[in-house]
Specification:
mainly alpha, 3-stranded antiparallel beta sheet, about 160 residues
């Protein structure tokens, strides 16, 4: 029983040789330790989407695609800026952010109007102003993430899904 070839389990996915050496079990042999730990990390909050938010995100993105298609000069940078102004305008519609400048140029006005219109349509006892603004922020993060794919990288990405 005390031979050199004896092994016993020490815990999760490791086998310890009686002589003191530790071996990985076969099912985890292809993963390095940092890969195992990376898979165990929770998803950051800004990447998680509440299922209840999906129709709101869809409404915002669907309108943005229509605006992109009607304005070929529109860039992702302009859309990101207009989304910020749209957030301010939505707050102002509900009586907040009076001191913030929510002025948009003519190129941004369609997006600002769209963000406010969706907010007015969706904000109710079931959806707070804060929750709606988080949805707008989530769309803005997506716009910024896809900016690296070109001037209209977000549009090129999202048009295939709507």
């Amino acid at each position: 029983m005390g031979g050199q070839g004896e092994f016993y389990m020490t815990g999760v996915n490791h086998i310890k040789h009686k002589a003191g050496r530790t071996h990985r079990s076969a099912d985890k042999a292809d993963l390095r330790d940092d890969e195992v730990h990376q898979r165990a990390r929770p998803t950051p909050d800004h990447l998680m989407t509440n299922d209840a938010d999906l129709p709101i995100l869809h409404d915002i993105e669907h309108g943005l695609v229509a605006i992109y298609e009607s304005a070929p000069e529109l860039s992702d940078a302009m859309v990101a800026f207009a989304l910020d102004i749209g957030k301010i305008a939505t707050k102002q519609h509900y009586g907040y952010a009076k001191s913030q400048n929510g002025t948009a140029g003519p190129k941004h006005q369609a997006i600002v109007n769209h963000v406010v219109a969706i907010g007015v349509k969706r904000i109710s006892k079931d959806l707070t102003l804060d929750a709606y603004l988080k949805c707008v922020d989530q769309v803005k993060r997506s716009v910024e993430r896809h900016r690296s794919d070109g001037v209209r990288g977000y549009y090129d990405f999202v048009k295939n899904y709507l």
